[in-house]
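Example S7 (C-alpha cells).
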C-alpha cells in the first residue's frame, strides 16, 4: 500500500469514528488543535515516544464501574492486583462475592487518594488495615474498609446502586441521596458509605513502573490541571473538602501507555470520558468542555459512556 493510500485510509477511518462519536455524545465546539494558542504550557520531552497514528476511538475494553483504592502514592508494583494484603489484591480475588451484576465490567486501580487516618494508626495485620475505596461514576467512598472485609462491604453498595440505576421510559434516572441512607452494611462493619461532594474527578495514569511515559506526562499534566483549576476556584486537595470542586488523582496502569497521556474524567452529570494523547496545552479546554460541560473531543477520545446523574 502506498503512502497516499495509507493517508486516505486513515482520514476515512478518522471521519467514520468522528461521525459515530457525534451520534452518541456532545462534541466540543473547538478542536484540540485550537488549544495551542489558548495558554502557554510546559511541553513533554522531545524524546518521549507517543503513538500519534492509531485511531483512538474503541481502543478501550468496555467497563461500567471504576474502583479506586486509596494508597497516597503515584507509583506502584508492576501489577497492583498481585500485591498481597491490599484492597486491589482482595478485590481481584473476591469478585465472585462482591460483583452485583455479571454483565457489568469493573476496573480496579490504585490511586493517589489518601487513606483515612485509621490506616496510619493501625498496628495489626495489613489485611485488617482500614483504608478507603472510591467508586466511580457512583461518586461515593467506602471508608474504613479492609482487604479482609472489602467484598462484604462492597456488595450491598453495588446492589443498591444497581436497583436504583435501572432506566425508566428509556431515560437514565438521577440518583437521589436517599439511596445512600438505605444501604445496609454488615452489622459488625466499621465501614462508612460517604457521598463525594466533588463535581468531577480527573484521573491521570502515572504508573512509572509499567511505563515511564505515563509518569512523565502525568507529572506535567497534574501541575497544569491544578493551576487551571486554582484559577477557577475548583481545585481541591486532601485538606479541602469544600463542595463543588474537581479532584485530580493519579492512578495505576489503565492500558494504552503508548497513547500517553491517558486522562479519564468522571462528571456528576453522568459522563465518563477517556481521553488520550493529552498535552498540557489541551488542559484549559478539557476543563471547560469535558469536565464542566460533558462534551468530548473526538480526536482525543478512546471511550465514553453516559451513566446516572448524581444529585448529591
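Recovered sequence:
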Amino acid at each position: 500500500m502506498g503512502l497516499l493510500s495509507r493517508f486516505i485510509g486513515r482520514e476515512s477511518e478518522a471521519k467514520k469514528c468522528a461521525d459515530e462519536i457525534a451520534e452518541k455524545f456532545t462534541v466540543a465546539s473547538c478542536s484540540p488543535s485550537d488549544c495551542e494558542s489558548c495558554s502557554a504550557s510546559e511541553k513533554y520531552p522531545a524524546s518521549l515516544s507517543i503513538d500519534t497514528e492509531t485511531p483512538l476511538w474503541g481502543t478501550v475494553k468496555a467497563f461500567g464501574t471504576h474502583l479506586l483504592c486509596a494508597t497516597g502514592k503515584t507509583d506502584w508494583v508492576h501489577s497492583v492486583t498481585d500485591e498481597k494484603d491490599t484492597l486491589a489484591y482482595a478485590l481481584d480475588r473476591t469478585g465472585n462475592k462482591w460483583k452485583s451484576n455479571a454483565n457489568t465490567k469493573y476496573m480496579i486501580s490504585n490511586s493517589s487518594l489518601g487513606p483515612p487516618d485509621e490506616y496510619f494508626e493501625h498496628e495489626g495485620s495489613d489485611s485488617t488495615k482500614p483504608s478507603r475505596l472510591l467508586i466511580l461514576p457512583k461518586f461515593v467512598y467506602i471508608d474504613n474498609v479492609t482487604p479482609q472485609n472489602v467484598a462484604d462491604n462492597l456488595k450491598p453498595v453495588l446492589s443498591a446502586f444497581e436497583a436504583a440505576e435501572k432506566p425508566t421510559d428509556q431515560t437514565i434516572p438521577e440518583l437521589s441521596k436517599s439511596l445512600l441512607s438505605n444501604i445496609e452494611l454488615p452489622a459488625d462493619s466499621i465501614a462508612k458509605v460517604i457521598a463525594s461532594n466533588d463535581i468531577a474527578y480527573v484521573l491521570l495514569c502515572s504508573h512509572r513502573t509499567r511505563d515511564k511515559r505515563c509518569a512523565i506526562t502525568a507529572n506535567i499534566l497534574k501541575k497544569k490541571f491544578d493551576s487551571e483549576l486554582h484559577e477557577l476556584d475548583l481545585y481541591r486537595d486532601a485538606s479541602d473538602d469544600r463542595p463543588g470542586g474537581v479532584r485530580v488523582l493519579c492512578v495505576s496502569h489503565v492500558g494504552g501507555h503508548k497513547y500517553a497521556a491517558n486522562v479519564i474524567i468522571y462528571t456528576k452529570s453522568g459522563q465518563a470520558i477517556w481521553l488520550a494523547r493529552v498535552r498540557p496545552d489541551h488542559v484549559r479546554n478539557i476543563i471547560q468542555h469535558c469536565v464542566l460541560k460533558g462534551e468530548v473531543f473526538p480526536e482525543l477520545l478512546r471511550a465514553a459512556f453516559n451513566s446516572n446523574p448524581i444529585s448529591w
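Notes on this example. Residues 3-9 have pLDDT under 50 and may be disordered.
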